[in-house]
Design brief:
The complex is a heterodimer of chains A (about 110) and B (about 110). Chain A is mainly beta. Chain B is mainly β and about 110 residues long. Chain B is about 0% helix and about 50% strand. In chain B, strand 9 and strand 10 form a beta hairpin. The radius of gyration of chain B is 13 Å and the shape is globular. Classes of the chains: A mainly beta (about 110), B mainly beta (about 110). The interface between A and B is medium-sized, with 29 and 30 residues.
Chain lengths: ~110, ~110
Amino acid sequence: SQQGEEDPQALSIQEGENATMNCSYKTSINNLQWYRQNSGRGLVHLILIRSNEREKHSGRLRVTLDTSKKSSSLLITASRAADTASYFCATDETLTGGGNKLTFGTGTQLKVEL
Amino acid sequence: DTGVSQDPRHKITKRGQNVTFRCDPISEHNRLYWYRQTLGQGPEFLTYFQNEAQLEKSRLLSDRFSAERPKGSFSTLEIQRTEQGDSAMYLCASSPNRDGYTFGSGTRLTVV
């Protein structure tokens, strides 16, 4: 079952604009991660934010986390055509042996037009 | 090491046939995961290996599915008696810790 839901489902912006994607989840979390997926390809890990963090930056990415609202947002600043992809949030759950199971949302399809 | 490799990239099979996919993780990563992704959805967890031990299996993994990771290196995922509902992208990922996976490019299975 899907843990989270991303909003919007699809987003189309012009190059240079900022893109904001939101994620809501249902249960308590350890960490929340964001991944990008180019069409028909595997997922690429973007950023991890821990439950005791409120904001994190990585290059043009900014992630916020509000555990009281069970929500997170991903902001991509100064978007480029190469940012066109689907973006997923994922919560993780500890597994036996120390691994972690990711539960993904349904994703936001971002299209950045020239 | 160029990342996580999956083979084949695409597989078309007739209903009822068996298929096997292979995943070669990053060599230093002792954790290996299989996920399945259908069109328009996020990936869903199937199973997890720590070295050669399969420590977790999802209820999505019916009796027709089996996964192995002999010697804690590469892994295989076999689907027996394929059904049309098995059509999906099968993703393998590996990690050395809990701070993010490295995914392979996936194997797209089409059952006709």
